[in-house]
Amino acid sequence: MSLGDTYLKGLKDTGWQFGSRLTTEHVWDAFIILCLLEDKRHGNHCLQVPHTGLQKDRNKDFILNGQPGVVDHACNKCYRIHLTPSGKIRHCHPIVGDRLNMGHPFVLCEEPVTRPDSKLCSNPELKEFERKNKEKRASNFILKEQFRHTQASQPVDTLSTKQIDHVDDDAAVPPPDPCPSKSAAGNRVAKAQFSRKRTHNEQTLVCPCGIIYARATMFGAEAVSNFLVMVQNAFSVPGAKKPEQIFYDTNCLAHQQAEKSFPWFKGIRMCVDVWHFLNKHQVTHKYCQEHCNPIQYPELLDEFGKWFFNTSVAEQINAWLQGYHSIVHEMLPDKFDFFLDKMIMRRNIEHLKKLQEQGHNPQALED
């Protein structure tokens, strides 16, 4: 027997009330406590843990104020002051957006899922639907249905060819059926889904220097309208400043929607990132070539004619985030958001130190 086993056995014999085996719950609780302690330490506050409250309350600070220390970030790799040939000074502080195939289970109601392995929330009506669905799949229900079909009576004269000699002219004739048409209520039938739904993807906004500016969950699809809403919300927190340039792989569609329905984007240049523009967008697409071609903006090129900003940085960051896919796959929404936001925050802190060491002069962007 090893010395460790001997020590643990001795503790057990003395009536030690706590277990000695490290579990996933212990690691997760330690991570939460460490993150909360660090947050309070940066704000010079004392951590108070109440006996009530919801887990989602921990995420309010990220929602209302964004990632700490980066909402006004600027450095030599993501901010540039460009002098045009006409002598005009142009500021360029772009942001890059991209999606990541990562998500969590969720339900379309206000009540939270009760357990990670549960399909429904605590709504009693939905639980009754689930009970009936399980009952319908049970073997005794299936056998009852088969027996009921065998007892159904069959008509005797279904093949009768008896001639009808007389028809009463005064008999009421039913009115003809109207022409077929669609119901005013539509042709969609409400159905109950008893399998878990999952979010569609995670969307990230990244500075060209590698600082992760924001993250959001797309529940149904990566619609360009959802992306525009995310960008507007991310740059509407206190201290944030609108980017002069937005890189996105489908900006040709996003730019058209922004012109029609999102006045907030007026004055912001929206280009397709270089790789997607060269490989995924058609040369014959007139609108894309006229409005989303990055070569039209000289501030994106350095003095040697090369691209000044890394417009593929979001895909590189998403490759890092993908490493947490197996960890967060079964997390519920509140835990999922808390974990990813904290990991992003910790990475940003380390990356800011790296930018400082490399001489890129990270600083707060002034008005």
Structure description:
With 367 residues, the protein is α+β, with helices and mostly antiparallel strands. The chain is built from twelve helices and eleven strands. A five-stranded mixed sheet has the order 8-7-4-9-10, with helices on both faces. The chain has a two-stranded antiparallel sheet with strand order 1-11. A two-stranded antiparallel sheet has the order 2-3. Strand 2 and strand 3 form a beta hairpin. Helix 6 crosses helix 7 (251-261). The longest helix has 25 residues, at 333-357. Mean pLDDT is 79; it is low at 158-165 and 176-182.
Sheet/helix structural class: alpha+beta
Oligomer: single chain
Largest sheet: 5 strands, mixed
Q: Average pLDDT value?
A: 79
- What overall form do the CA principal axes indicate? globular
How many helical stretches?
12
Low-confidence region ranges = 158-165, 176-182
Strand order in space, largest sheet: 8-7-4-9-10
* Percent of residues in beta strands: 5-15%
Report how far the terminal alpha carbons are from each other: 68 Å
Order of helices and strands: HHHEEEEEHHEEEHEHEHHHHHE
The total of beta strands comes to 11
Radius of gyration over all CA atoms, rounded: 31 Å
Helix share of residues?
Answer: 25-40%
Task: Summarize this structure briefly.
This protein has 367 residues and is of the alpha+beta class. It has helices at 3-13, 24-42, 60-65, 124-137, 139-150, 224-234, 251-261, 274-279, 286-291, 313-321, 325-328, 333-357, and strands at 73-74, 80-83, 89-92, 94-100, 105-106, 197-198, 201-206, 212-218, 245-247, 269-271, 363-364. A hairpin with a 5-residue loop joins strand 7 (201-206) and strand 8 (212-218).
